[in-house]
Amino acid sequence: PILYSYFRSSCSWRVRIALALKGISYDLVPVNLIKDGGQQFSAEFKALNPMQQVPALKIDGITLSQSLAIINYLEETHPHPRLLPQDPKKRAQVRMIADHIVSGIQPLQNLSVLKQMGEKKMEWAQNCITSGFQALEQILQHTAGRYCVGDEVSMADLCLVPQVANAERFKVDMSPYPTITRINKALLELEAFKISHPSRQPDTPAELRA
Questions:
Q1: Which of 45, 149, 204, 209 is the most exposed place for a label (fewest CB within 10 A)?
Q2: Where is the GST C-terminal domain (predicted)?
């Protein structure tokens, strides 16, 4: 497999965690979203992913984009360890939390949106994350065990950790979200989350390396 990734992309990070958890080795091709006006806009990369976004994964003779589509494919082809619970209610909760982050928070504070916000980008990002986290904190109080849904790592957790990293980068006050904070801390102790971290990627700038 070949993963086209950017060290700081939360969508890429989700997929890196999934690959690490499932023990799938891959080659990484960095796509710098800032350098050269954004390498994702090159004709070469547009041919790979017409949406001109990371991640993209070449695997088993196909090329997939969109992080949840990639993770779902990995789940179906490499079912252990599972990232979706067997219980239908818990499975639905995992998907709900993942969608909450992937559709309801992350795109609103994405690089392409922030570019258009100009001087207000920090305030905009903080507002988007805060409103999303207020709802997410409430949801997690009903679903969480050690992690987002019960005590097994799931697709929801793969979405949570990168989003908390974004919140910290945009200086969001995390004190109103004790459940989110607790789960994030527990997940960051796991090896798959450590090795996939933005501070430990081949394209991480020297000053941001762990």
A1: 209
A2: 87-206
Which residues in 91-104 are b (16+ Cβ under 10 Å) and which e?
bebbbebbebbbee
CA gap 100, 54 in Å, rounded: 20
What the chain holds in terms of domains, given with CATH numbers, is 2-81 (3.40.30.10), 88-193 (1.20.1050.10)
Q: How far apart are CA 162 and CA 153, in angstroms?
A: 14
Kindly write down the DSSP assignment for every residue of 90-110, as one continuous string. HHHHHHHHHHHHHHHTGGGGS
In 3D space, the residue among 161, 155, 154, 209 whose CA is nearest the CA of residue 186 turns out to be 161
**Would strands 62-65 and 56-59 be described as parallel, antiparallel, or unpaired?**
antiparallel
Q: Residue 108, exposed/middle/buried by CB under 10 A (0-12, 13-18, 19+)?
A: middle
